[in-house]
Design a protein that fits this description.
With 383 residues, this protein is of the alpha/beta class. It has a domain at 4-117 and 209-223: Thiolase/Chalcone synthase (Peroxisomal Thiolase, Chain A, domain 1, 3-Layer(aba) Sandwich), CATH 3.40.47.10. The chain has helices at residues 22-37, 52-56, 61-69, 85-98, 118-125, 141-156, 164-174, 188-193, 254-267, 284-293, 302-307, 324-328, 335-348, and strands at residues 4-11, 44-48, 75-79, 105-111, 196-198, 201-202, 212-220, 229-239, 276-278, 361-368, 373-382. Strands 3-2-4-7-1-8-11-10-9 form a nine-stranded mixed β-sheet, with helices on both faces. A hairpin with a 4-residue loop joins β10 (361-368) and β11. It is globular and about 55 Å long.
């Protein structure tokens, strides 16, 4: 298998983009990535998306976007893995280039979510849960996460306010990200006084949806002369049961554990070697569980990393350095590609006030459903 490098990245601001269609949003990110890479054509196109058929009434996104971008006749396909669709598309493209099947690939994660009413989006997101045993009973994703968070607090003795530093860190970092949706600092008081969504989860625990797209171009590393060279050191994917109640331990993200361990082995690193971790903080409880399953904290102690201010860009385990899902925003099918783009920015040294000093190895972890599909990627900077 050939080593693969990322030569171009692009993204759009996450917002309520009423004036732009799905194709325009995805096209903007794709064109930005091609401009960054200094190329006009690629051999293949991979689209990560979850909700286009429900929200926009559009399937066939591979051809849909190849037509808009001007990549006629090339391979083009949509990949869906719920909220993990962006990283799943990246992994599919990676395997195509690494195997030698294609010499260049453009990956676009894209989602347009604000054209439907809130209750319709809630129902659409629930299609990633178990339709028979979860959705049929009326449970939503925020409801599932609330049940997990309540149990976690009971088992390990944490209070709700102990999760506040995750959100405070995300909002502080998003202030310096022009592509983030929320540019507003928060404090413990605002966290505690926020409106309740599903006890114990309140608005400050939950990530906002939005319209957005992020893209990257990958090629064989041996062909790249641009410095620094950003290579994909590892890519791993794992699954757990789609229904939370079917898991042996609902407080442990088994798929995160498996995919991160496979990625560490592939890259030849340990958690101690990771300079930054773009984790999937759709809800603050998921940040804690991801840190634990990925080996950065012991069981039940993920919250402690945030309380001790170790997750800031100046800490020893920097997470969500560009705002994370919580403040950058969570356009579900695009989120995994935003994470990839943000790790590349860090390894290039382009993150300004949230730059992690000396960042050379970064990890991105994208979660589909309530931990059912989890993909972990490790990127390295090479001089």
């Amino acid at each position: 298998m050939r080593q693969v490098a990322i030569i171009g990245i692009g993204q759009t601001k996450i917002d309520e983009q009423w004036d732009k269609s799905l194709r325009e949003i995805g096209g903007d990110a794709a064109f930005a990535a091609m401009q960054d890479a200094g190329i006009e054509k690629v051999d293949s196109l991979f689209i990560g998306n979850m909700l286009s058929s429900i929200v926009s009434g559009q399937n066939q996104l591979g051809t849909f976007f190849s037509d808009w971008i001007g990549l006629w006749k090339q391979e083009a396909v949509k990949i869906e893995a719920a909220c993990g669709s962006g990283a799943a598309a990246f992994r599919s493209a990676l395997m195509a280039v690494a195997s030698g099947d294609t010499d260049s690939a453009l990956v676009v994660g894209v989602e347009k979510m604000t054209d439907k009413a809130g209750h319709e989006i809630t129902a659409a997101l629930a299609t990633a849960a178990d339709a028979d045993y979860e959705v049929e009973q009326g449970v939503t994703f925020v409801g599932l996460n609330a049940l997990v968070m309540r149990r976690y607090m009971h088992e390990f003795g944490w209070k709700h306010k102990d999760f506040a530093p995750f959100s405070i860190n995300a909002h502080a970092n998003a202030m310096h990200n022009p592509y983030a949706r929320l540019h507003e600092k928060i404090n413990l008081e605002k966290f505690e006084n926020s409106s309740m969504v599903a006890t114990p989860i309140n608005l400050m625990d939950a990530s906002p949806i939005g319209d957005g797209a992020a893209a990257a171009i990958i090629v064989p590393a041996e062909t790249v002369t641009r410095k620094p060279k950003i290579v994909v050191a590892a890519s791993a994917s794992a699954t757990d049961t789609i229904a939370v109640h079917s898991r042996k331990d609902p407080l442990f993200l088994q798929a995160a554990y498996l995919s991160s361990r496979r990625a560490y082995d592939m890259a030849g690193v340990t958690p101690a070697d990771i300079d930054l971790f773009e984790l999937h903080d759709a809800f603050s409880i998921m940040a804690a569980l991801s840190l634990e399953a990925s080996g950065f904290a012991e069981r039940g102690q993920g919250v402690r990393l945030a309380l001790e201010n170790r997750i800031s860009p100046q800490g020893d385990v920097p997470v969500c350095t560009r705002g994370g899902l919580k403040a950058r925003g969570h356009p579900v099918g695009a989120t995994g590609m935003y994470q990839i783009v943000e790790v590349v920015q860090q390894l290039r040294g382009e993150c300004g006030q949230t730059q992690v000093d000396g960042a050379r190895i970064g990890m991105a972890q994208n979660i589909g459903g309530s931990g059912a599909t989890i993909l972990t990627h490790i990127l390295k900077q090479e001089e």
